[in-house]
Amino acid sequence: MNPNAQPYKYPSRSRLRRHAPRGYKRPGEYRPWLDDEFHFRCVYCLKRKVWAPTDIWCVEHLIPQSKDLNQACVYENLVLACQRCNEKKLSVSAPDPAAFPYGHCLRVHQVTGEVEPLNELSEM
User: Is 69 helix (H, G, I), strand (E, B) or coil?
Assistant: First the structure.
């Protein structure tokens, strides 16, 4: 393994989403697309599904359904999240990690594994 590899490093550049499926009636139906889109990892804490196969994984809404029900089944509003992060976010809106690179405002502490805010934009 590369000694310089950082498995918990947020992207520092924006990117276009690779997929754009449409027409599903329930957010959970987008799960296979989101798994691939976000490389089978939580967009918030970067935990990989393979590292926690018994965890509950969620289709998370960047703009919560409580704030805009019209966004409930819009692919660009959906991300993959572990249950812990999904529960911590609750009804707070978050920027799309593909459009807004989280690497500018968050980092995972290498010793504790906690997500650290780097500026006021990342305080939650």
Answer: helix
